[in-house]
Protein 1
Amino acid sequence: MTPTQDDLHSESGATAPRRKTWRSPLKREIALALLLKLVLLMGIKTMFFSHPIGKQEAAQRLGAMIDGGRAPATPASLQLTDKTEQK
């Protein structure tokens, strides 16, 4: 009896588990889903979190959101001095 190709691979042990690992459709689907999620997360990170902003810029953006975009985001002390100078 001559050894078959499967018998030769099963003796070495190194190539047989590697081949059978990706034969399962469930394992391939899970790996593909994880890879897709990783790509999407990296895309979202680069789009929305590309660079950190300074505290001053963050305060200005927060002030603009609180005011609803109606007034410029300046500190209250500056707004009072501007109003008194206009009179």
Protein 2
Amino acid sequence: MEILLAIMIGFLYAAGIYMIMRRSIVKLILGIVLLGNGVNLLIFLLGRITKGEPPIIPGTESVIEGLYADPIPQALILTAIVISFGLQSFAIILVKRAYKVLKTDDLDQLNTTDENS
């Protein structure tokens, strides 16, 4: 399972970097989304995949015994998903507004449009 996730992370990183290097802002946003998903999977993989019980201490004990799932990577990924959703929403609205005003999503044309104004 870990090897499959490592291959998927490599694919997401490669596709994300490829999309970021394109000239279109829409492709740039898609590349950022792919990189964000790759990072989330990487954090999940670094937290080690264990099939265990939830980390809840019973009332009769003072420490957790046995195999349990680590909640920290899951909490970090959940936070990263929420933050990336907010970033993606803002970027999509920004691109929509820029396209409405300038009628292009090409980064080179946006740079030359800025100089002529």
